[in-house]
Amino acid sequence: MRYFLAALLALALSGCDNNTPEPESAPGEVTDMSAAVADIPATDWQNNADQTFQNGAAAWQQAMNDFEQNREQAQLDALREQLESWYAAFVDHYLLAASRACQLNQQELLNRMDTWPLYPGYLDALPEWPESGLISDPYLEMTRKSLRTQHGATDASEASLGFAALFVALNGTEETPKALPLLAGDDEIALRRREYLQLATELLLTDAKLLSVEAPLDSQALKCGLEHTLARDARKASTDLEAEGLFIPATVREVNAERLLKGVRNMDQTALEAWAEKAPGIEEALAASKKEGPDALATWLNQP
Fold this sequence. Notes:
Layout: H1 2-12, H2 32-37, H3 43-69, H4 73-92, H5 94-104, H6 107-113, H7 120-123, H8 144-150, H9 163-171, H10 181-184, H11 188-210, H12 219-236, H13 250-265, H14 269-278, H15 282-292, H16 294-301
Helix pairs in contact: 1-12, 3-4, 3-11, 4-13, 5-6, 5-12, 9-11, 12-13, 12-16, 13-15, 15-16
């Protein structure tokens, strides 16, 4: 199953120059080639997406502060709600983020923001392995640098960063979320778990800034971004992962099922109109996707 997922993603990205070297320009800077052909306005779309994302991040960080000050169940419940809300803001504008990643040749950065399926025991303790995970490792320094180094260290599904990893640390992997003492206690592991939430948040915000640029988009970047989005939509329905030790947090499945394609259909209207001039049929495909789902968009992408 693991190899099927990898093949699916590779197929979806085949048209995105996935093997080209990373640009020599600074992260977040559009290369000269991209800028020369980019003529689809995206300023309003980008500003709206950035503002929504930042608002979600601020609410999540305030909830973390509230929980640190008063480590009770009510504050933990609010913390979980705010993380889901922030994640929804990310998924709502995933097409834009994916298109920017294609434009900037930064697909790995986007994947780092939300890696799944993932090995949950790589990050945190599991009921059957109570001492597993980076958070439980007293010899691993809990810093932004160490978490960045550990992400995907030997396998792409070894996630120490991103939204899905945050859900694992906050909620666990069982149907019942982690008990309050596992996050609110004064023991070393609970303290490291709270430190992890803060550091992983800071790194997520850093990565998001690298994909936020004040520049137009081009048709090819948007098509590539749509391919990413459809691959993500297919991946969320993956089953039979347990044999591989892989896991998709329930919130990740639910939010993507509810909002991912809706976010594509609700893309910025000005950008859509300009894109439709370069890529005839996209407006019709988006309209058809309301009934046909992702197949309508896949058919449009695969047309000659």
